[in-house]
Write a structure and sequence with these properties.
5-stranded antiparallel beta sheet; 3-stranded antiparallel beta sheet; 12% strand; binds 2-acetamido-2-deoxy-1-O-phosphono-alpha-D-glucopyranose; binds magnesium ion
Length: 379
Amino acid sequence: MTLGDTNGELAAIAAAFELPGPILGLERLGNGNVNDSFLVVCDGAPLQRFVLQRLNRTVFAQPELVMANMMAVAEHVEARLNGGCALLGERRWEHPRVLLSGAEGRPWVERNGGFWRLISYIESSRSFDVVDSAEQAREVGFGLGVFHHLISDLPPAGLADTLEGFHVTPRYLQHYDAVLAGGPDGAESEELQCRAFVEERRDFASVLEAARESGQLRLRPIHGDPKVNNVMMEVCSGRACALVDLDTVKPGLIHYDIGDCLRSCCNSLGEETGDLESVCFDVDLCREVLSGYLAAASGFLTAADYDHLYVAMRLISFELGLRFFTDHLAGNVYFRTDRPGHNLQRALVQFRLTESIEAQETRIQDLIAELRADLASVR
Ligand code: GN1
Ligand code: MG
């Protein structure tokens, strides 16, 4: 949907929610690969801003359940924040507020064939597509840790599985096999390179699911998409103050989140880079992200959780590459693309990142052991 001619339609959709005042402006927001997002500015003193989003129904087949999860998490987090959170001290922390529609009294409206929702904008904050300092990396990690901490006592059984198979790597492999069997050639040189890359890691793909099935890792509520630009940083202090993009909150393994956060933070060129040769996993940033995360999360991590940190970062980078590559072969039906070959390029970036993680395994494992020992000594 382009803005301009549709501005009036968007304003009418936003006005279906219980806004505090008349709408002053609307503009497209962010660069999500799945949903459409718009910033809505409302009159008032002070001006208030909101995020209007159209959920991608091809991806989220049951958007009402996505909203039910969002409401359940918001209620839980609000109660925890109201009760006081020692971890946060004086630090500002916000959770996006979901607005109800005036007529229906529901947290969504259906208009123009779309499923729309409106949430509060986290004011005086911004997000970054790539990490640009050690402090920022630490803050992103701490932000994810705070989020996990705040939902760690929410029973996962109370959340719906809104995206079955999300981050279950063997399922992505099955889908990849089905797409390949369906006939696309995938025979260009870069495609052959990707195919070989996937083949070499076929057995590895089940590492986290096997740990879950054997009871070493257990399901917990997760964010699902805690990449660097979903962590909002307070403008004045540079500190993490909110996690946004809560569509994928559902039961899962926290390792998916940790891996996703690390694969996005430690790739300094960002996931859209065309400079493949220079893609690498920055272990110094990994140290910062992990120590920030552990400062908030060490209280609920088990020995098995620590044992699976390295494979989590390797796996989620590989998995995202596999998802991009499969979508390229399938004709770009899932991730939004700007040009032919876009998803192939994204896949190559993630595979390059995976290789860089693999090449630095000893260093990364040593780093995890060191952080773990430091935490054990202060207990
Ligand atoms: C998608 O739309 P966006 O950018 O928030 C995807 C994530 C990927 C990410 C890669 C529901 O998220 O899993 O990590 O692209 N979300 C879904 O940029 O598939
Ligand atoms: Mg997302």
